[in-house]
Amino acid sequence: MMERTMRAVRTVLSLLGLIRDESRRPYRPERYYMRGPGPACLRRMQSGGPLAH
Hints:
The termini are far apart. By secondary structure, the chain is mainly alpha-helical.
């Protein structure tokens, strides 16, 4: 019985640690927003294909 309780406590503590670590990550907008055209768009622009800007 005691072993099962200790295992449950360890599980809860590890989950709390994961939540704490996730909440501490800084927000970096450069990871979420593109900066300019992607590689496929660049290829279309260079070839003069459809949808070239």
